[in-house]
What we know:
By secondary structure, the chain is an alpha/beta fold. The protein has 11 helices and 13 strands. Helix 4 runs parallel beside helix 5 and helix 6 (195-204) packs parallel to helix 8 (254-264).
Amino acid sequence: MIAVEHILVTGGAGFIGSNFVHHLVGHTEARVTVLDKLTYAATRESLTGLPSDRVELVVGDIADAGVVDPLVDRVDAVVHYAAESHNDNSLADPAPFVQTNIVGTFTLLEAVRRSGVRFHHVSTDEVYGDLPLVTDEVPAKRFTEDTPYRPSSPYSATKAGSDHLVRAWVRSFGVRATISNCSNNYGPWQHVEKFIPRQITEVIEGRRPRVYGDGRNVRDWIHTDDHSAAVLAILQRGRIGETYLIGADGERSNLEVVRAILRHFGRDPEDPAEIEFVADRAGHDRRYAIESGKLRAELGWTPRFADFESGLADTIAWYQAHEDWWRPAKADTEASYAAKGQ
Ligand code: NAD
Ligand code: DAU
């Protein structure tokens, strides 16, 4: 187990990064420095309530070596969440995805190469492309650590590129790094551009959920706190150079998720008029599914939120209680979706 006295968390003011910072403060004694550019996806509020003697926010860009190098020199480990993260945005403008996800990761890797600091790279199951929706295989195929890379979108291609950089820096330069590829997260502090918060807030606002295409696409949902626990386990006990897939057996079609949200609000989930079908996403991946046996067997991780419906109910309650937080972003987000027919 490595001593994690002081950790640099990149992207720690975003959705999953901020949840990880809360998890670290609750489950370790570590001091945390957050490096975050505070893009549209970040909020300082996500870090409120944390002890100021243990958590510090530095506003800066991971692609700026002048900012990154001195911070990396101060810490025992870097956990790298910062990214442009939304597929739809990557279709509209891929440039910031290349800059942050590839050049930013390269900048961090060069810093840890020089300093010898432990590095954990947070990545996505989307690097593996998608799986067929209908298959004769029993059990149905899932992603494993050995699945070939086949990314579909500019977002997932840049995440795949960043994973390749990490592996090359491990092999060629002996950087002490691990990688995790996780499935779709849900929970508090997720931007309203993403599927679950968008649908919850649409229903709160008295509108209908918006489903792309036929709604049969499948995502493998995991509560973000389970993701945090897995990343901490990998940071502390994972084998250097290894990749771990993180997933909680949470496969649901988009229609199933939307119906669960409607049911929660007392609306009729079986009434087709309750759902608005909108333009599909270009290149829309059909199905993601994670086989997380390696993580469970090697590191003893299991998800705490095994019941998706109850995790979803907690998340809906959180959005109902935090209207002040999401409302400022909602109108602009919906205007930009409306411009695309979504
Ligand atoms: P997010 O968009 O909510 O947060 C990203 C954070 O990174 C924001 O705080 C943003 O300000 C920061 N950031 C962006 N560019 C930066 C830069 N150049 N320098 C410094 N900070 C910058 O994203 P998220 O959903 O929390 O995802 C976090 C990470 O987890 C990403 O690497 C993503 O690929 C990965 N991931 C996400 C999911 C998911 O379901 N959301 C699943 C698996 C993996
Ligand atoms: O699998 C992990 C990935 O999950 C992460 O790497 C990404 O950062 C994260 O954004 C997420 O990507 P998705 O594209 O799967 O998530 P999103 O929330 O954008 O969409 C989930 C599904 O819902 C997808 O099939 C598209 C669909 N969708 C999305 C929106 C916003 C809709 O049907 N309607 C919508 O309004």
